[in-house]
């Protein structure tokens, strides 16, 4: 499996988890990642920074990582 497919698989498996808690905007981890990447694009950031914005929480979504990103709770 290539790197892009692995990243897609991680977001497919765990992207539905809620990002943050009740004090934050109620979005999923995938929605949060996409919002960050979109903001970087709108700011005319280098492509590498857009990718970094998209993937900045990927380690927390990996199998064996914390249960949910940034102290979040699962919605399932």
How does this structure look, described?
- With 76 residues, the protein is mostly helical.
- It is flat and about 30 Å long.
- The chain has a two-stranded antiparallel ribbon with strand order 1-2.
- The C terminus is likely disordered.
- Helix 2 packs antiparallel against helix 3.
- It contains four helices and two strands; from the N terminus they run H-E-E-H-H-H.
In whole angstroms, the N-to-C terminal distance is 27 Å
The biggest beta sheet reads: 2 strands, antiparallel
H/E element sequence = HEEHHH
What is the overall shape?
Answer: flat
Major sheet strand order = 1-2
Strand content: 5-15%
**Helix percentage range:** 40-55%
Give the SSE map.
Blueprint: H1 3-14, E1 18-19, E2 27-28, H2 29-42, H3 47-55, H4 58-61
Antiparallel strand pairs: 1-2
Structure at a glance:
With 76 residues, this protein is mainly alpha-helical. The protein has helices at 3-14, 29-42, 47-55, 58-61; strands at 18-19, 27-28.
